[in-house]
Amino acid sequence: MSGRRCIAWFDNEDSILAAVTAARRAGYTIDDVYTPYAVHGMDEAMGLPPSRLRWVCLGCGLFGLTFGLLFQIWTSAVSWPLHVGGKPPFSAPSFVPVSFELMMLVAGLGTVAALLARTRLYPRLRLGSVLNGVTNDRFALVLATADAPSDENEKQAFCRRMRAIDVEFVEVSA
């Protein structure tokens, strides 16, 4: 990911949402969008596919539920059957709380682990600097540019039409 990038700065979420939609419609390559908080509708505006983490969560939850049920059935009905108060060793209603809690635990931990693995956020990871101001009150749209000056002029004119408060071009190395 090396080359020049056009960074357009906006001061509110409506402006950047309109700019992202227009940039995608115009066929520009959107490198990234930086916002201080989650902007509703930004995923659709950028054309991002739906997250697959929900399927990871479902799979981990079903694994936890199945493991919890099978482990309880094995321990109470197969390995060490005890008749307590006249109840049978396999008493399904008594397995519900532990199975539910194990399902929630495995689903939560599995989803967080998958998120960290997918985004490559490992312990002691040194991240590059985030654009100044986007964690506070500014919004930034980053567009890839060609090396031609005419492309930069075209992108700058596009960003000005979209009411960008500032447009700058930076060199990005891999």
Looking at this protein, list some descriptive labels.
174 residues, Alpha-Beta Plaits, 5 helices, 15% strand
Could you please describe the fold and organization of this structure?
With 174 residues, the chain is an alpha+beta fold. 49% of the residues lie in helices and 15% in strands. It has a four-stranded antiparallel beta sheet with strand order 2-3-1-4, with helices on one face. The protein is elongated and about 85 Å long. The model has no long low-confidence stretch (mean pLDDT 87).
Secondary structure topology:
Elements: E1 3-10, H1 13-26, E2 30-34, H2 42-46, H3 53-79, H4 92-118, E3 139-144, H5 149-161, E4 166-172
Antiparallel strand pairs: 1-3, 1-4, 2-3
Helix pairs in contact: 3-4
Question: Concise description?
Answer:
The chain is built from five helices and four strands, in the order βαβαααβαβ. With 174 residues, the protein is an alpha+beta fold. It has a four-stranded antiparallel β-sheet, covered by helices on one side.
